[in-house]
TrEMBL record:
<feature type="transmembrane region" description="Helical">
    <location>
        <begin position="65"/>
        <end position="88"/>
    </location>
</feature>
<dbReference type="InterPro" id="IPR003593">
    <property type="entry name" value="AAA+_ATPase"/>
</dbReference>
<feature type="transmembrane region" description="Helical">
    <location>
        <begin position="138"/>
        <end position="157"/>
    </location>
</feature>
<feature type="coiled-coil region">
    <location>
        <begin position="212"/>
        <end position="239"/>
    </location>
</feature>
<keyword id="KW-0547">Nucleotide-binding</keyword>
<dbReference type="InterPro" id="IPR039421">
    <property type="entry name" value="Type_1_exporter"/>
</dbReference>
<dbReference type="InterPro" id="IPR027417">
    <property type="entry name" value="P-loop_NTPase"/>
</dbReference>
<feature type="transmembrane region" description="Helical">
    <location>
        <begin position="20"/>
        <end position="45"/>
    </location>
</feature>
<feature type="domain" description="ABC transmembrane type-1">
    <location>
        <begin position="25"/>
        <end position="307"/>
    </location>
</feature>
<keyword id="KW-0812">Transmembrane</keyword>
<feature type="transmembrane region" description="Helical">
    <location>
        <begin position="163"/>
        <end position="181"/>
    </location>
</feature>
<dbReference type="GO" id="GO:0016887">
    <property type="term" value="F:ATP hydrolysis activity"/>
</dbReference>
<dbReference type="Pfam" id="PF00005">
    <property type="entry name" value="ABC_tran"/>
</dbReference>
<keyword id="KW-0813">Transport</keyword>
<dbReference type="Pfam" id="PF00664">
    <property type="entry name" value="ABC_membrane"/>
</dbReference>
<dbReference type="GO" id="GO:0005886">
    <property type="term" value="C:plasma membrane"/>
</dbReference>
<dbReference type="InterPro" id="IPR036640">
    <property type="entry name" value="ABC1_TM_sf"/>
</dbReference>
Length: 581
């Protein structure tokens, strides 16, 4: 991230302050007031030392009381200033996370195909948290440092120009060190954040695939891969810490000691001759602290600031990602009959290799068609195009004679029901998973469950429809999860039903129940089924055989067997395997 890019990111972050401008102004006002109070304290002490140290009277007592009251006042004002800054910070991070999540929800499947889930999670959680640190701690400390530096320098000049000039000799060295640190640290910090994202991605992948990892004894390999990324992350984190140690607090502390030495030497050699009092010297030592401490704090936080800028850039990349799902029209067109037609449709995931090549077919209202073929032949791609997860390259997709692009996305999602091979259940209850937060009554939920033969096993659960569903529904069998997915689809009353290998992962006994449910679901609905088990689609009105993105055979089950083509070979192969089993 270049200096220019950092400035662009910083200005964009400041735009998030706009809704909280008055709270920010109040926080800044309190910071300024804190600075003024801090600078008054040494003046009181200086006056006490010069005039009342050797003869304490009522005025001296009042000065001492005022001195300590100033510390109390400083603490109170600083507390509220930090509190208001923290509120602004957390509000801004909430807004950034909302924008990032909102944009993520609009992105097309192609983005998720090329971006690991762990990386996305890292951007919305870890990276936004780094931005929070910038606003709550770094930005407030930086502004406070500016106030303190300016007010302190002004106060020192008013007290004694010569002593101030001595201290000011070291200021250019500070700015040189900060600039050197910025140049050397950006790449190291960016790499550290990137490796942290890789750690999250590897962790998410390992948790998601833990069964396969254990089944194939891949634990050692995954541990080695994780450790390699982890080791590299530690190496870059150590390099970042080495830069911090070289350029930040130790260097700043050394410069502060040099400033003390200059003041003490000047006071020792010239103080008595030029009339510098002990009280003035005490005040200057305190002001050197006031001058250097905020600079030390800012430089110490500079690494966190760099991290925040890199993290903010990563979050903004997600917010700016424009790979949205295909655009739909805003017309009031509705899907009434569910007639589907593909006309010479071609499609590619990467723009280079065609997955569908001139596919044409038609499904009339209430008919069931099926697609079969080898893995990679394009079966699921037809579903992806019809569901508008991806944009097709050429041809036409029609529903009820209208271009699919003319329907609103809400209409498509409402009227097209999708049942996947691996049903996904949310954390919640059975009832909420069937409703999917739609305007569906409890009676409709139970009717949908009864329609797909899921009511029986649900009623046997201790809490019935209120029974909890763990993450991904892991406490239910595959068949039970599939029946719940069926109930969810039926409850929305779709006109078109898409079955993407809905019985592929189900045992033979459960398959009979599921098949019976599917038969009822298909009644009166236009249905497109993808299946590996040819026995599940023999009653389809038409079966299409795909090979390398093209339809090479079509017909009913009996017609395709008579042709003795690819479908016939597939059927014989599956029949032979069943006999052997």
């Amino acid at each position: 991230m270049t200096k220019t890019n950092q400035w662009i990111v910083f200005k964009r972050l400041l735009t998030y302050l706009k809704p909280y401008k008055w709270l920010t102004v109040l926080a800044l006002g309190l910071l300024l007031l804190t600075t003024v109070v801090k600078n008054i304290i040494p003046l009181i002490a200086s006056h006490f030392i010069d005039y009342y140290l050797n003869h304490v009277n009522q005025t001296a007592v009042m000065l001492l009381i005022g001195y300590y009251l100033m510390y109390v006042l400083q603490t109170i004002i600083q507390y509220f200033g930090n509190l208001f800054f923290a509120r602004v910070s957390y509000s801004i991070v909430r807004d950034i996370r909302r924008d990032a999540f909102s944009n993520m929800e609009r992105l097309g499947m192609s983005y998720f195909d090329r971006t690991p889930a762990g990386s996305i999670v890292s951007r919305i959680t870890n990276d936004t948290e780094a931005v929070s640190e910038m606003f709550s701690g770094i930005l407030s400390s930086f502004i406070s440092a500016v106030f303190i530096f300016t007010v302190t320098l002004y106060t020192m000049l008013m007290l004694d120009v010569r002593l101030t000039a001595l201290v000011a000799l070291l200021l250019p060295v500070i700015f040189i060190l900060v600039n050197l640190y910025r140049k050397k640290s950006v790449a190291v910090i960016a790499k550290t954040r990137s490796l942290l994202s890789d750690i999250n991605s590897k962790l998410a992948e390992s948790i998601e695939g833990i069964r396969i990892i254990q089944a194939f004894s891949q634990e050692e390999r995954l541990k080695a891969e994780f450790e390699e990324i982890n080791r590299e992350h530690v190496a870059y984190a150590n390099r970042s810490m080495a830069l911090d140690s070289l350029f930040l607090r130790p260097a700043m502390s050394l410069l502060k000691l040099l400033a003390y030495a200059l003041l003490m030497a000047y006071f020792g050699f010239r103080g008595l001759n030029i009339g510098i009092s002990a009280g003035l010297m005490y005040a200057f030592i305190q002001y050197v602290n006031r001058l250097f401490d905020p600079l030390i704090e800012v430089t110490q936080n500079f690494s966190t600031l760099q991290t925040s800028m890199v993290s903010a850039g990563r979050v903004f990349d997600l917010i700016d990602e424009a790979g949205f799902e295909p655009v739909q029209g805003n017309s009031a067109a509705q899907i009434e009959e569910g007639i589907i037609e593909f006309r010479e449709v071609s499609f590619s995931y990467d723009g280079k290799r065609r997955i569908l090549d001139g596919v044409s077919f038609q499904v009339k209202q209430g008919e069931t068609i099926a697609f079969v073929g080898a893995t990679g032949s394009g079966k699921s791609s037809i579903i992806n195009v019809l569901m508008r997860f991806y944009e097709f390259e050429s041809g036409q997709v029609l529903i009820d004679g209208q271009d699919i692009r003319q329907f609103s996305q809400a209409e498509l999602r409402k009227k097209i029901g999708l049942v996947l091979q691996d049903p996904f259940l949310y954390h919640g209850t059975i009832e909420s998973n069937i409703k999917m937060y739609q305007d569906i009554s409890d009676e409709e939920v139970r009717a949908a469950a009864a329609f797909v033969d899921a009511n029986e096993f649900i009623q046997k659960l201790p809490d019935g429809y209120k029974s909890p569903v763990s993450e991904r529904g892991s406490s239910f069998s595959t068949g039970q999860r599939q029946l719940l997915a069926f109930a969810r689809t039926v409850a929305s009353q779709p006109k078109i039903l898409i079955l993407d290998e809905a019985t592929a992962n189900i045992d033979s006994e459960t398959e009979q129940i599921v098949q019976h449910s599917l038969e009822k679901m298909r009644q009166g609905r236009t249905t497109i089924a993808i299946a590996h088990r040819l026995s599940t689609i023999q009653d389809a009105n038409c079966i299409y055989v795909l090979d390398k993105g093209k339809i090479i055979e079509s017909g009913t089950h009996e017609e395709l067997l008579e042709k003795a083509g690819l479908y016939h070979k597939m059927y014989q192969l599956q029949a032979g395997m069943m006999k052997e089993a």
